[in-house]
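Please decode residue identities from the backbone states below.
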């Protein structure tokens, strides 16, 4: 397993722990992954609810929460710490500015095209910028816009395929279409990015995400040109994951048929583990509510059957009568809780076995 180079950052294990909200990947999980030589990632989604004692203003508490989680992570590790910030967040700009001011090593940004992301950097900023895309076309658009408007190119690009958990950058029809598999997307993006690398003499590693579960999966996708992988689902069932034990247990208890594609209030399809709450939504028993948070720009609360951030906070706490867990397509393969250290070592061993 070769190390991953992102700008001047050398990551010993080419493994990124995916940012998982709400509250699933905070400083605890991120620091543990960073300590093992990977990139630990804090999800910025919904932090305002976790830090509501700081301020009744959700967006203000959100900023404070990100600052606190980054500082907590820094106390626990000297490794590489990133932040996942969704373009769709209503206070996207504030969260980006906070991450840069706190010197987060990397910002990962998807759920929309982060076309203005380099505009937040200062002359002395050290934060690397990594967009998350679902097509070669999106990668090309971002590179061209960033270069033209900011004379900046991505420090790396994450390609997230349709087997990922949470919100997906695909139409419902594309999710099971063979033309949109991660194995098909990676070579396409790598070829597109290579032209940009050659034109501007700048390395832009491509990182594969979505449905990668074993060391053999890592090996196979890297053979197609990926320089590293991002994994979220595997890290949920670890001791260090910031979710409740009940949340982790839903992964262990889940069968393949329990993992479904849902329509999210934010206007994108998502992959989640079926729960009593989602069954009620299917039956039309949940009613639109007044939005207390204004957390996502694309959320249509007038036509939505529920508040997504409230549902995810409830799931974080293990209350599946009022929430549900997002999960990748392979979440049902989880059988037990392990440590981050043992998980990463097992992935390395599996990788070496097929190398």
């Amino acid at each position: 397993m070769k190390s991953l180079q992102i700008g001047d950052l050398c990551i010993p294990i080419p493994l990124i722990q995916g940012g998982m909200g709400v509250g699933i990947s905070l400083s605890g999980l991120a620091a543990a992954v960073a300590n093992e030589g990977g990139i630990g990632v804090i999800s910025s989604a919904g932090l305002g609810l976790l830090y509501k004692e700081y301020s009744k203003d959700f967006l203000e508490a959100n900023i404070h929460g990100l600052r606190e989680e980054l500082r907590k992570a820094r106390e626990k590790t000297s490794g590489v710490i990133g932040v996942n910030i969704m373009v769709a967040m209503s206070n996207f700009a504030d969260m980006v500015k906070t991450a840069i001011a706190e010197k987060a090593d990397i910002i990962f940004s998807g759920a929309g095209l982060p076309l203005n992301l380099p505009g937040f950097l200062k002359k002395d900023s050290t934060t690397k910028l990594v967009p998350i895309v679902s097509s070669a076309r999106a990668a090309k658009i971002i590179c061209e816009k960033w270069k033209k408007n900011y004379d900046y190119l991505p420090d790396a690009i994450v390609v997230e395929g349709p087997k990922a958990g949470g919100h997906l950058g695909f139409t419902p029809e594309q999710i099971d279409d063979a033309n949109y598999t991660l194995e098909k997307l990676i070579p396409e993006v790598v070829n597109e990015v290579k032209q940009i690398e050659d034109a501007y003499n700048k390395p832009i590693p491509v990182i594969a995400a979505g449905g990668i579960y074993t060391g053999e999966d890592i090996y196979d996708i890297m053979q197609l040109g990926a320089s590293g992988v991002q994994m979220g689902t595997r890290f949920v069932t670890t001791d260090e994951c910031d979710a409740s034990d009940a949340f982790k247990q839903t992964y262990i208890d889940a069968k393949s048929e329990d993992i479904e594609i849902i329509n999210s209030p934010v206007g994108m399809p998502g992959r989640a583990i079926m729960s009593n709450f989602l069954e009620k939504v299917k039956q039309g028993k949940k009613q639109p509510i007044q939005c207390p948070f204004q957390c996502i720009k694309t959320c249509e609360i007038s036509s939505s059957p529920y508040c997504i951030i409230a549902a995810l906070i409830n799931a974080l706490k293990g209350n599946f009568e009022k929430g549900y867990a997002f999960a990748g397509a392979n979440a049902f393969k989880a059988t037990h809780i392990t440590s981050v250290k043992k998980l990463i070592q097992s992935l390395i061993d599996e990788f070496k076995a097929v190398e």
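Observation: Residues 245-331 form one domain.
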